[in-house]
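Q: I'm writing up a methods section and want to include an example of the input and output format. Could you take the sequence below and give the corresponding predicted structure tokens, formatted cleanly so I can copy it straight into the document?
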Amino acid sequence: MEKIFSDAKLVITASVYNELLEVKQYGFDFPDNVTQSSIGLINLQRAERSIFEDFLQDYRIHFGEAEGMAIAKCRNGVFITNDSRAVEFCKEKRVKVLNLKDILRRIAVENIINKGEMVELIRAIEDKDRTFIIGANDILGGYK
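A: Here is the clean output for your methods example:
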């Protein structure tokens, strides 16, 4: 993420950080990729609380997402997620959002990894996360 968005300040909320620590306690090591990076930690400010509380009323998103979305909306930031319900929620609430496809497409357009590596990356994500990346051909179309 830091390589892709080198000109941006990347942050996670305190609640997402706590979720990562909890997952790490169950033996997963992927949280280390975040906690050992230069991604910063950000907290909700008083002025953002009402939007956060409003967002929390929606069953489609959880606490950490609501916190991050409120901060992104109030501070003109971009919320990054791989959850299609969260993407739809952001669009409804006018929160700028990027999903996994957007990020992979940017990697392709900027040729950060070659096309073969991208195919392998997509397969690995689909396998590890037990998901299907819709629009993989669109991502691969980013290569010239």
